[in-house]
Amino acid sequence: MAQERATPIRLGSTAPDFTADTSNGPVTFHEYIGNSWTILFSHPDDFTPICTTELGAFAKLEPEFTARGVKLIGLSANGTESHKLWIKDIDEVTGSKLTFPIIADPERKIAYAYDMVDYQDTTNVDSKGLALTIRSVFIIDPNKKIRLIMSYPASTGRNTAEVLRVVDALQTTDKHGVTTPINWLPGDDVVIPPPVSTEDAQKKFGEIRQVKPYLRFTNLKKE
Q: What is the pLDDT of the chain when averaged over all its residues?
């Protein structure tokens, strides 16, 4: 019997809670998040080429995420023993030291709850006829709210630098009440949101560069 498609989750919705086995032992997701930012990212299968490169890259970049108060947790549609063996391959191939948990989701329960399943390619199924998990990324804030969703096809690897950049952007906008323009990186000018008057922005930030009445930039001083 086909599994029902989950109600779509959207930006700002609460991340569905779940309890699952992982490569590091049982996890209750909301407890794992705690008061941290968290990145949940899924993979189609263990011992596959693109997934191996991705997990190694995330593991090598984990200190940068930790410095920003961000936890990592992966997911793959296999059991924990498979995950543990795969981690040895990941570390060997990529030179990483992977320590964050990888969720076991062989029945795709979490994949369906988070709509991490490829419905465009109906041939993308395993031996049990279950749709394979796609490459999804969810950035979740300490209030358990989903702040970003990115989905990639199984054939395309992700960009860890972009995931880190978005974390920087979200944390900057939350802290300072600004927005970030195209290709923004820490240290670049930020944008004053339209509802904020120029007078109030000048009081808060100091120098303002106005390009149009609706497009005003400032630069956040280093703290």
A: 89
